[in-house]
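Now for our specimen.

. . .
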Amino acid sequence: MVSLRKATKDDVSLVTQWWSDQQYMGDYQDVKVLSKEESEKIMLHDTIFFIIEKNHTAIGHIGGWMMGKTMEIGYALVPNERAKSFGTEAIQLMVDYLFLTKDIVRIQVSTDTENIASRKALEKAGFTKEGTMRKLWYTRGKYRDHYLYSILREEWKAPRKLTKAKK
């Protein structure tokens, strides 16, 4: 079982390190070479950003950014905690939190068409695949297609993981 906690300034170094590690970023994203100041701006000012924890230990991150009445989210887990349903749990927690606390009509995610684990996690969390966004990202020397997934407020209906969220 995982939990989400809002990121703090104390998390910036760890997340900056994760983002610069190809194993953490996985097969479908390039590393991000950012200063701690740039990471802090993203994590603490420009997005809604949570640390995914298991037994009070940080195992990943999940964050979101607004586009009108839509929230786009992204996430990653440390390699040794993947394929254990922790991604699905974190996504479900984030969806509950966002629909309980934000005036949004949809949450969306894009994932590489070859990222089967992410696709399965999104589908288990109630997301619907909407279509293919061709050549969306240039990663590791080639353009990559992504699937767009979403969940609408009326499809969500009620919390799956949270009974009430803190603002």
In short: The first helix runs from residue 12 to 19. The longest strand covers residues 128-139. The chain has a mean pLDDT of 93. The helical segments are 12-19, 22-25, 36-46, 86-101, 116-124, 153-156.
